[in-house]
Amino acid sequence: ITLVKFMSILKIKSQYKEELPLIREWGLFLSFKMTNLALNFGGIKITEWRIKDWNSIKNKIDRKITHLNEIQDLIGLRIIAFNETIVQKLNNEIPKLFEIISHTEIKSVNGINESSFIVKLKKKELGSKEFRNLSAELKIRTLEYDTHLKIDHHLHFNGNTEKSRIQDNTAIGLLRQIG
After folding, report:
1. N or C, where is the chain less crowded by C-beta within 10 Å?
2. Is the dihedral of CA 163, 53, 31, 93 positive or negative?
3. What integer pLDDT is reported at residue 102 of this predicted model?
4. How far apart are CA 114 and CA 145, in angstroms?
5. What is the CB-side half-sphere exposure of residue 158 using CA atoms within 13 A?
6. Residues 48, 70: contact at Cβ < 8 Å?
């Protein structure tokens, strides 16, 4: 490791420790805002939110990150929607609540399985909070797709190396894969 790289790591680690209380507050604020949306919509479950840990940040530093604010997913929130219709409704609501940095979708023949947003607080809300430089990742998944990913993860990462990744995203395909 070069001296420059080492100094960069120390700088970002210092920023992380200094901003961690603010990052936590941003995560709680985001979770609260999305929970209110879930209560209004129904058919939605906020499964978890997390703050990216230092080891994950260190891995990103290896990919040319020079400042903590360049990491767009310091906060991650997963939202499970019971069906694709609710995912579409949320896709329409998220831009009303947040400034959208990016939006991607994973689609199948069944429709949208996952929407992923990188968001920031809208400028009009910045007066009350100091979240202006922080962004977060919102992942909205259908219940079926979330279940598929969990089973796939279990098969692939829990000592089942002879099993291949799940290719068939249907319930019958999952059962065939499990054997």
Report:
1. C
2. negative
3. 95
4. 7
5. 7
6. no
The answer on pLDDT for 153 being more than 90 is no
Question: What is the rounded CA–CA span in Å between residue 22 and residue 4?
Answer: 27
Alpha carbon distances (Å) from 20 to 27, 41, 69: 10, 31, 12
Mean pLDDT, range 90-117, rounded to an integer: 88
Q: What distance in Å separates the CA atoms of residue 146 and residue 153, rounded to the nearest whole number?
A: 10
Instruction: List the beta bridge partners of residue 118.
Output: 102, 137
Separation between Cα atoms, residue 168 and residue 153, nearest integer Å: 14
13 class by beta-carbon count within 10 Å (0-12 exposed, 13-18 middle, 19+ buried)? middle
DSSP reduced 3-state for 10 = helix
179 exposed, middle or buried (CB, 10 Å; 0-12, 13-18, 19+)?
exposed
Q: Report the relative pairing of strands 98-108 and 111-121 from DSSP bridges.
A: antiparallel
Structure tokens at 173: 């395909």
Give the number of other CB atoms < 10 A from CB of residue 95.
13
> Nearest CA to 167 among 151, 159, 158, 157?
151
Tokens matching residue 127: 């007066």
How many residues does the structure list for the chain?
Answer: 179
